[in-house]
Amino acid sequence: MTEIKPFSAVFYNKDKVHDLDSVMCPPYDVISPEQQKAYYKLSDKNFIRVLLAQQKSTDTENDNRYTRAKATYDQWLKDGTLVQDDRPCIYFYRQEYKVLGTRHSRLGFISLMKIQDEEGAKIYPHEKTHAAAKEDRYKLWNAVNSCLSPIFVCFSDREKKVEKIFVGDVSKTAPFMDILDQDGVRHIVWRLEDDKLIKSIVDVLQDQPVFIADGHHRYEVARQIRNARMSRSGKKNGAEPYNYLMTYFTNMDSRDLQIFPMHRIVKKFPDDLAFLEEFFRVDRVKKPEDLVVLAAKAGHNEHAFGLYMKNNMCLLRLKNKLLIDKMVKEGSPEYKRLDAAILKAFVFDQIGIPSEDITYTKDMNDIIRMVDSGEAKAGFVMNPVRIQQLKSVALNGEKMPPKTTYFYPKLLSGLTIYRFDS
User: Does 202 share its domain with 322?
Assistant: First the structure.
């Protein structure tokens, strides 16, 4: 059973911080070192100073990025830069943005979700996690005793029951926050206090499986923290704050749920492409921008990739789908039909490209830049994973290949915070 409930979020005090646009930042795992420096310069109150504090060569056990994050966080709570809501709420969250010139608006809400044990869980991940990233977040969240960013999950609401609550009641109230981020995405937040409406949302989620889109590491860290605190505490009733995790929910049936493809860039690749013709129809392409369009068009009915090399561009279309089960050695039928799995089996494994020689990006311009500069030899233009594919693979208990999905836009960090002792 998926169990959610409202909470009293910690957030920036608008009486103290007048320019909220300057204090928010993206999730920690999409922030480059250059962006980290830029957010530091943007404001001395930017959330980056807690979420991703800078490391120093002089760091010690008692003075490091985690202790400095805690000191900053504690000071902001003390001086009123951050304040806590005076009552539990659900926070509706709408993001307005453009993709290829088309306007979109993704609606969701932030609440608490009860952490589940693996056995019998209805919370389904789709990506593998890495120990170093989990250790980093574990140290930080323990230091500040808070969940600093929500995880991002999808649920099914074909009847749009949650959206109807927003349109009929919440949208008529004044927004709680209205922020324009560095990428031009508008983030609007409303508070929902009405107990009856909150109960209606809780009921919609009660029997739902939910699928983690972003925040796999954060979910596992929250589970680690819960397990550690349960082992230390005495009497427990299951309602302790550490049993819950701040979570953003959005409807997987919405057309505004955008999943971007994650392209592959490889350091080495043969100049002679004859080996590809055994499995693919190879069509020459004249312009880089055509690769994305042609791959997307072909991808409606077949497995297709764009290949970008210096002075050589082509569209690759898999000839024989019947070979998939033979060539892709692992996974369910749904897993085997992921483009990322097919590219690995039919191309990368054929010429021995190791995983450490693959770079991932959502931006076609990165492919062009790296290949043209000689930093890489080839780039593969991918099509996005469909939400139904993600759902099927997750329900099978499987994890997708690395860097298969990129949900857009990302949630802002700094909008709401959940204190484990609240």
Answer: no
Report whether the peptide linkage leading into residue 401 is cis, meaning its omega lies within 30 degrees of zero.
Answer: no
**Statement to judge: residues 145 and 85 lie in one domain:** yes
**Strand-strand pairing, 210-214 and 123-124:** parallel
| Residue 67, domain member (yes or no) | yes
pTM over 0.70: yes
Q: Rounded mean pLDDT of 116-128? A: 86
Collapse the DSSP code of 388 into the 3-class scheme (helix H, G, I; strand E, B; otherwise coil) and give the result: helix
CA 419, CA 246: separation in Å to the nearest integer?
9
Q: What is the mean pLDDT of residues 44-62?
A: 95
Q: Are residues 98 and 194 in the same domain?
A: yes
What CATH number is associated with residue 330? 3.30.1760
Please count the structural domains in the chain. 2
The closest alpha carbon to 150, from 205, 91, 204, belongs to 91
Which residues 6+ apart lie within 8 Å of 163 measured at CB?
A: 107, 157, 251
Q: Which candidate, 62, 153, 75, places its Cα nearest to that of 112?
A: 153
For residue 50, the model assigns a pLDDT of 98
Residues 167, 221 share a domain = yes
What would the mean pLDDT of 336-344 be, rounded to a whole number?
A: 97
**389 part of a folded domain:** no
Name 284's bridge partners. 314
Work out the pLDDT band at 422, boundaries 50, 70, 90. low
Q: Which residues pair with 25 in a beta bridge?
A: 413
**In the chain, % of residues over pLDDT 90:** 90
**Paired sense of beta strands 258-260 and 312-318, if any:** unpaired
Q: Which residues contact 23 (CB under 8 A, 6 or more apart)?
A: 12, 17, 42, 43, 45, 46, 47, 414
CA dist., res. 357 & res. 8, Å (int): 45
Q: Are residues 293 and 253 in the same domain?
A: no
Tell me the β-bridge partners of 146. 419
DSSP state letters, 368-387 = HHHHHHTS-SEEEEPPPPPH
Report if residue 136 sits inside a domain: yes
CB 50 within 8 A of CB 417: no
- Are 413 and 268 members of one domain? no
- Residue 56 resides in a domain: yes
Q: Residue 361 sits in which domain range?
A: 262-383
